[in-house]
């Protein structure tokens, strides 16, 4: 594969991966405006974020088998089309209930892009390069938190929150064109793959019973939920507690995202010297320590705006280091059913993320305490799962030179 071809594939796959996060990040600065426009509260607006997470979680279980049965591109076309329709529906939403439903449908569409991109990484690149490729995808993914909330803040203040969803629809159209003309079909349709409930359930169970998968998939999902806790609580913490404007919130969100993006790229260098398992274990312990300080400082009132930003920055750095490694390690054992495995991986992240998002909304606390409390619980659970789960992995997985993983 030429360098130009490699670069092009990373950009397109990264854009697919970023569609869901873009759909989240761009409308976050509009929470107060949406609440005012739809005559509701910001906590209720946050439920439209929760419904998005739930939709992605459920949709990924749907698309996994479809990607293995019909190839990667046909289900992807369906998902992108559904996303465009739902985005227009969000634009015309006249009540919070309608927005919540439209966001759920929009998520069902966007998760086709997320699942397909992860499966295609497994299709198009050798296993030894997977962690490196995932880190590069996160670099492209980084355009979302750097650009989307800032643009969303300016668009909301200048034109109203509804226009955000038209912009998202246009972005999806452009991605669809790239998929049609640039992205190859990386996995031919498999007529032998049954879509009957029994075989599908058996396929999911086969993946779930693999110790390497369930250890790193759920460990990574629990750690990744720290990002969801931050995303769900940050509009309330920054715009209502610290009283920053929508524009300022967008810039804070962009600055904090540098931690997540930068650390994921640092990981590309770390995996050349250390095993992926070592990185995950060490960083998880650091994440628990930061979460303890964050919760204590929030409860005692020691953290102002700057202190809160510093704590969140540290958490996001940890998530950025953990995520590429747990994703690569979880998917490494699979070839034929990579679509099913990637859908379960994504579903586990989004299922836990949706519970975290709902949990933040239920707290109804005008402080950073719910965010910090959820992060400390989830990261501690991830660490415990890691120590227990690795004992059941008979085939060890080690990092190879170049950032990949391989069984030996």
Automatic annotation (TrEMBL):
Lineage: superkingdom: Bacteria
Annotated coiled-coil segments of the chain: none
CDD domains linked to this entry: MFS_MdfA_MDR_like (cd17320)
Membrane topology annotation: Multi-pass membrane protein
Alphabetical list of Pfam families matching this protein: MFS_1
Domain Major facilitator superfamily (MFS) profile intervals: 9-396
Family, similarity comment: Belongs to the major facilitator superfamily. Bcr/CmlA family.
Protein name: Bcr/CflA family efflux MFS transporter
Organism of provenance: Mucilaginibacter gilvus
């Amino acid at each position: 594969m030429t360098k130009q071809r490699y670069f092009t594939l990373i950009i397109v796959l990264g854009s697919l991966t970023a569609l869901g996060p873009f759909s989240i990040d761009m409308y976050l600065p509009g929470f107060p405006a949406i609440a005012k426009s739809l005559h509701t509260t910001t906590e209720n607006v946050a439920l439209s974020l929760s419904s998005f997470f739930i939709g992605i979680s459920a949709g990924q279980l749907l698309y996994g088998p479809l990607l293995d049965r019909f190839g990667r591109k046909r289900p992807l076309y369906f998902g992108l089309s559904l996303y465009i329709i739902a985005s227009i529906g969000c634009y015309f939403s006249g009540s919070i209930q309608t927005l919540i439903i439209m966001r759920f449908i929009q998520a069902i569409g966007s998760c086709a892009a997320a699942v397909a991109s992860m499966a295609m990484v497994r299709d198009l690149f050798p296993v030894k390069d997977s962690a490196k490729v995932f880190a590069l995808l996160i670099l492209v993914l980084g355009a979302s938190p750097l650009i989307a909330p800032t643009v969303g803040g300016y668009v909301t203040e200048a034109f109203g929150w509804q226009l955000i969803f038209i912009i998202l629809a246009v972005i999806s159209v452009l991605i669809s064109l790239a998929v049609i003309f640039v992205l190859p079909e990386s996995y031919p349709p498999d007529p032998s793959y049954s879509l009957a409930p029994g075989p599908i359930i058996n396929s999911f169970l086969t993946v779930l019973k693999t110790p390497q998968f369930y250890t790193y998939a759920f460990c990574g999902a629990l750690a990744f939920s720290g990002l969801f806790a931050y995303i769900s609580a940050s509009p309330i913490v920054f715009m209502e507690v610290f009283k920053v404007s929508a524009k300022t919130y967008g810039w804070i969100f962009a600055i904090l995202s540098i931690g997540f993006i930068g650390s994921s790229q640092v990981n590309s260098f770390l995996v050349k010297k250390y095993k992926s398992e070592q990185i995950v274990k060490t960083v998880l312990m650091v994440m628990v320590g930061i979460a303890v300080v964050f919760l204590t400082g929030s409860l005692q009132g020691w953290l102002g705006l700057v202190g809160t930003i510093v704590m969140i920055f540290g958490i996001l750095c940890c998530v950025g280091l953990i995520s590429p490694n747990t994703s690569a390690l979880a998917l490494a054992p699979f070839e034929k059913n990579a679509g099913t495995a990637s859908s379960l991986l994504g579903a586990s992240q989004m299922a836990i993320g949706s519970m975290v998002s709902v949990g933040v909304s239920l707290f109804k606390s005008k402080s950073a305490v719910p965010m910090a409390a959820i992060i400390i619980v989830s990261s501690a659970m991830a660490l415990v799962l890691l120590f227990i789960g690795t004992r059941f992995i008979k085939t060890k997985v080690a990092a190879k030179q170049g950032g990949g993983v391989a069984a030996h």
